[in-house]
Write a structure and sequence with these properties.
Layout: H1 2-17, H2 22-31, H3 38-52, H4 58-77, H5 86-111, H6 115-122, E1 129-130, E2 133-135, E3 141-143, E4 150-155, E5 158-162, E6 168-172, E7 181-185, E8 190-195, E9 201-204, E10 209-218, E11 221-233, E12 242-245, E13 250-253, E14 257-262, E15 269-275, E16 278-282, E17 285-289, E18 293-297, E19 302-306, H7 309-312, E20 319-321, H8 327-338, E21 341-344, E22 357-359, H9 364-372, E23 378-382, E24 385-389
Parallel strand pairs: 1-8, 6-8, 11-12, 21-24
Antiparallel strand pairs: 2-3, 2-7, 4-5, 5-6, 7-10, 8-9, 9-11, 10-11, 11-14, 12-13, 13-16, 14-15, 15-18, 16-17, 18-19, 20-22, 23-24
Length: 390
């Protein structure tokens, strides 16, 4: 661990200065795959800015130079990245560049503070966290952030455990009973991960719920019901199809990775496939989609389009991917994660888009200042409300 931290510090310095060789660039991005180094990398970025910035205009020149060096590194490394690793590489490379630029803008604004930036910091909101409520078949509710690690309950031959890293795990032990239903639900500002009895894993986004039999089996099928948004990594079982039921559709798979967004405040249900194949059924409409495709169901039909999956699964990876995202869609993501209400002034256009990446671990003020740096909108925070004007 200590050796990796030393190596990442050395390589990051060369990356920021634009002196890294191809081999050193490859080594740097290989180390970024180690999630335990995330905090170290963020600290390196912040230190780089602090040590080299001054309250004069040269600050922005320094930021531009570091940003350009990272972009150059991306161009050098991109052809050598294997397709299977590219989404991860792209996320980290983009996040590196944006954290430096966002951090630089923050430093510059601190030295030349505006009334609006001061107001955003004064009314700041902490990011969301890992948390959920588990409702057992007998009606008992367990708030998982308060529950101790270890065995939580045993229902219908299934043991329910909370692991040390905060994951919920179901394990079948002996004969199981049917019609013992559990519900895992998250509030605004919460996410949670559950491993179902068949080994399938589900990441639940904010303001969402997943309902299922404790043994997962209904008439030979693996059945779950979803409201809100979740990412599914389904264990392969050709004999038992896995079906996700939402208010307007069913998604059937045998074993695959996919994301479903079924929030009631979104105009349609979006099913995005990353691996394998899925069948989306809504009334008489049926569509089979391939990896990289998204099925959008507005209740009047299902349309399929090729999409950038990174834009869809950003929340699972702890990011806001705002690149070419409808502004109001982006702000709904922000509102759910920070548990705030968004109020629009009439001056805000309906057809603007955001851009870039920023971590969901940042406080609300950092995210809003990052979006505001585009010059498209201005924010004011009062309590739990964000007021947006042109």
């Amino acid at each position: 661990m200590a050796e990796n931290e030393s190596n990442i510090a050395y390589l990051f310095k060369k990356l920021a200065d634009g002196t890294a060789s191809k081999e050193e660039l490859a080594a740097y991005f290989e180390l970024t795959k180690d999630n335990s180094l995330d905090d170290k990398i963020t600290a390196l970025m912040q230190a780089e800015l602090k040590n080299n910035a001054t309250p004069e205009i040269q600050d922005t020149e320094r930021i531009d130079r570091v940003y350009n060096n990272i972009e150059a590194a991306i161009r050098v490394q991109q052809p050598a990245i294997k397709k299977s690793n590219y989404p991860f590489f792209k996320r980290w490379a983009a996040a590196a560049a944006i954290l430096i630029v966002a951090g630089g803008l923050f430093y510059y604004s601190q030295n030349k503070p505006s009334k609006n930036n001061t107001q955003l910091v004064a009314n700041d909101v902490a990011p969301g966290h890992q948390g959920a409520t588990l409702t057992l078949a007998n009606g008992k509710k367990i708030i998982l952030t308060q529950a101790i690690n270890g065995k939580l309950a045993k229902e219908a031959g299934v043991t329910i455990t909370k692991t040390a890293n905060g994951q919920l795990v179901y394990q079948v032990e002996g004969t199981t009973e049917v019609n013992k239903v559990n519900t895992l639900s998250t509030d605004n500002g919460e996410t949670y991960k559950v491993q179902l009895p068949d080994g399938s894993e589900v990441w639940l986004n904010s303001a969402s719920s997943l309902t299922y039999n404790t043994n997962l089996n209904e008439n030979g099928k693996r059945m779950v019901s979803l409201t809100g948004e979740a990412y599914f990594q389904v264990a392969k079982d050709k004999a038992h199809p896995f079906i996700v039921h939402t208010e307007k559709q069913d998604v059937e798979v045998l074993g695959t990775h996919f994301n479903i967004n079924s929030y009631k405040d979104e105009p349609a249900i979006a099913t995005t496939l990353l691996e394998g194949s899925v069948k989306v059924t809504s009334g008489t409409y049926k569509q089979i989609i391939k990896p990289g495709e998204q099925a959008v169901n507005n209740g009047a039909g299902i349309k399929v389009a090729v999409v950038d999956a990174d834009n869809i699964t950003d929340w699972k990876d702890g990011d806001f991917n705002l690149n070419h995202v409808d502004f109001r869609v982006a702000m709904r993501k922000v509102a759910r994660w920070y548990d705030v209400e968004v109020v629009y002034d009439k001056s805000v256009p309906e057809d603007i888009e955001t851009g870039g990446w920023i971590s969901r671990k940042q406080k609300l003020s950092a995210v809003l200042k990052f979006i505001e740096s585009s010059g498209l909108v201005h924010f004011k925070v009062e309590g739990k409300k964000i007021y947006i004007s042109k």
